Amino acid sequence: MRSYEVLREAADKSGVKALAAALRLSPALVYKWCQQSDPDDPDASGARNPLDRLRDIVNATGSTKVVNWLCHEAGGFFVPNPDIDQHALDTELLVNTQRLVEEFSNLLSTVTRSIEDDGEIDPGEADRIRLAWENLKNTAEAFSVACERGDYRGAEPGSE
């Protein structure tokens, strides 16, 4: 989905006029943000919007701190996709499925170890849980990428 489409969808929920009023901007500008913008096309009626500008900031600085901040303000956090070595990715379906289950088991074991001594999770234990969660997400993302690339097409069950 392109940035202007995301903005148009978001603006449709509250209404462009209400969004413009909340931002103290003209409705015309918000409408322009919700249209395709192309500096090379004089017929494109849209204007560069805040999402494009944020992308430009991230690209220019190489820092995702602005994305982290925005995610935090929206009640979440930014999780970058893991770097996946396409050549080292094992394309064995069962091996990768087992790896995914193993990482999930590691997360559950980490949580169990954290609470079994005193029934509480202290900051150090929370850090270990976060690490186990990040490992699970990376493994799941690598698995998903392999599926999307079609690495498991034609895989025969039990053929390893």
Uncertain regions spanning at least 5 consecutive residues: none
- Helix-residue proportion: 55-70%
Return Rg in Å.
22 Å
Shape designation: extended
Sketch the topology as an H/E string, one letter per element. HHHHHHH
How would you characterize the overall build of this protein?
This protein is mostly helical and 160 residues long. Among the domains are: 3-55, no CATH class; 93-149. 62% of the residues lie in helices and 0% in strands. Helix 1 packs across helix 2 and helix 2 crosses helix 3 (27-33). The longest helix is centred in the C-terminal third of the chain and has 27 residues, at 123-149. The radius of gyration is 22 Å and the shape is extended. The two termini are 38 Å apart. The model has no long low-confidence stretch (mean pLDDT 86).
Which features characterize this protein?
160 residues; mainly alpha; 7 helices; 62% helix; 0% strand
Task: Give the secondary structure arrangement, pairings included.
Layout: H1 3-14, H2 16-23, H3 27-33, H4 50-61, H5 65-73, H6 93-116, H7 123-149
Helix pairs in contact: 1-2, 2-3, 6-7
Report a brief summary of the structure.
The chain is mainly alpha-helical and 160 residues long. The protein has helices at residues 3-14, 16-23, 27-33, 50-61, 65-73, 93-116, 123-149. The longest helix has 27 residues, at 123-149.
